[in-house]
Amino acid sequence: MNTKKRLQTKKVTLSDKNILKLAPGIYSGSCVRGLRLKVFPGGARSWQLRFKDRGKDRLMTLGGIEELSVEDAEVMALGLLREKKNGGNLRERKMTFGEYATEFQESPAQAAKSKNWHRGLDRALRVHLLPGIGDVPIYDLTHERIEQLLQSVAVQTRDASGRKRGGSGAARLARDVLRLILRWSRRRGAKISVDELLPTTQDLGDDFKPKRRDRILTLDEVGSIWNLPTRSPHVLAVLRMMTLTGCRISEVTNLSWEDIVTDAAIPHFIIRRSKSDAGRRQIPITDRVQIIISSQAARNRLRGAKPFPVSHGHVREQMRVYGAVKDAVTHDLRRTLCSVAYNEGWLSESLIERFLGHAVKGVSAHYVHGNPLAQYRELMLLYETHIATAIENRITYGLRTNNA
Q1: From residue 304, how far is each of 229, 272, 297 by CA, in Å?
Q2: Which residues pair with 37 in a beta bridge?
Q3: What is d(CA 245, CA 384) in angstroms, rounded to the nearest whole number?
Q4: Contact 316/330 with Cβ under 8 angstroms?
Q5: Dihedral of CA 35/39/40/45: which sign?
Q6: CA quadruple 248, 249, 251, 255: dihedral positive or negative?
Q7: Quick one: pLDDT at residue 7?
Q8: H or E element that contains 9
Q9: Tens digit of each residue's pLDDT (9 = 90 or more) over 360-391
């Protein structure tokens, strides 16, 4: 049985003043049957007309509220419905890319996707695709136009607030979303060739390729991040946990108190899910890690909060604003631990890969079994000794909220 449902339509009074106050959702309330207003999470608002064609629900985007007032939208919708009643086929009109994108977003298959997927889909459409080709009829799209659009997205810029826009990652996401919507339009009857329209990575050039980061932090840079002058103790705790354990930022912030096991022979915490889908793994708790966890417990446990109640974006924003290390990112902490462990030969390559939560393939995946917590603990202690001069001379291991 299919349990996926469409977004429900809320009935409100639609007026030029009222539609500016509506939260994201779909609203009806006009005297014209099938006319509704779609409010997107990013704030955009557009008029849509839902009608039946050959027994199936169809959707047509009429335009945004900047172009059409409530009265204009009702007049246009009435004209289209009258045309359909007189034998006209609204599906034969040239539907734009934006109209197909709206149908795609509201399809039952997309309604079941995660919040992160919807956030990325909305951003790719609202920021990059719809401003460029949203009003273009699907049959008028060309390979050259799409290539030019994606190349412009691949060039990273900053908006008025200083936030990054575009880049190779945004361009790849935009191309993936574009491919999905073009395939959707083919299933809805558009006679287009997706492969001929979409440019390849070679067509788009070097700006479209992911930028490989291979930066290894020096001891002074590790110390600067350890002593980041942020006023948030949670941000500082996350950065120090990443420094000592090599965990990803999501693995630290997603920890729960049930994941922290202190009464075992070797105290450890459990990473239940990782980015690489490498499966569950255990990370030892050394004395320095225990101090960080205890400090977070004193702050959060009685209030029912997670050990590290802070978002990824806030940690990265604090790194950008207060970071004394130019162009450093949180993942550089993980890369530095990995590189030092490789170069010093503290553990075999396969064990280091498993410690970091990388997907181990080939022979190592079949012959490396068990949970070598004692060896992981030894690696962490060796790394703590390696960076001790960078962090011990700066502050004590207790967390601070201000200058310490």
Answers
A1: 27, 20, 10
A2: 27, 47
A3: 10
A4: yes
A5: positive
A6: positive
A7: 61
A8: strand 9-11
A9: 554 444 444 556 889 999 999 999 999 988 87
In terms of DSSP bridges, do strands 9-11 and 25-28 run parallel, antiparallel, or are they unpaired?
parallel
β-strands 56-64, 45-53 pairing: antiparallel
What residue type is 233 in one-letter code? Answer: P
Single-letter code of the amino acid located at 265: A
Q: Please state which CATH number belongs to domain 219-392.
A: 1.10.443.10
Mean pLDDT of 201-216: 67
Q: Where are the domains of the chain?
A: 14-91, 94-212, 219-392
Residues 6+ apart with CB under 8 A from 136: 96, 97, 145
SS3 248: coil
**Strand locations in 250-375, DSSP E?**
260-261, 268-271, 281-284
**Same fold flag, 14-91 and 219-392:** no
Per-residue burial over 196-209, b = 16 or more CB atoms within 10 Å of its CB, e = otherwise: ebbbeeeebeebbe
How many Cβ atoms from other residues are within 10 Å of residue 4's Cβ? 10
- Confidence check: pLDDT of 350 > 60: yes
Classify residue 58 by its DSSP letter. Answer: E
State pTM to two decimals: 0.53
Superfamily of domain 14-91: Integrase, DNA-binding domain (3.30.160.390)
- Give me 118's structure tokens: 């919807």
Alpha-carbon torsion angle 300, 306, 308, 314, nearest 10:
-110
Interval 20-42 mean pLDDT: 84
Residue carrying the six token digits 């361009």:
171
Per the CB < 8 A criterion, the answer to whether 169 and 154 are in contact is no
Of the options 3.30.428.10, 1.10.150.130, 1.10.630.10, 3.90.1580.10, the CATH number for the domain spanning 94-212: 1.10.150.130
Burial 94-103 (b: 16+ CB within 10 A, else e): ebbbbbbbbb
Cα first-last separation, the chain: 60
Nearest to 281 by CA among 364, 346, 370, 363: 370
Q: How many alpha carbons lie under 13 Å from residue 320 in its C-beta half-sphere?
A: 9
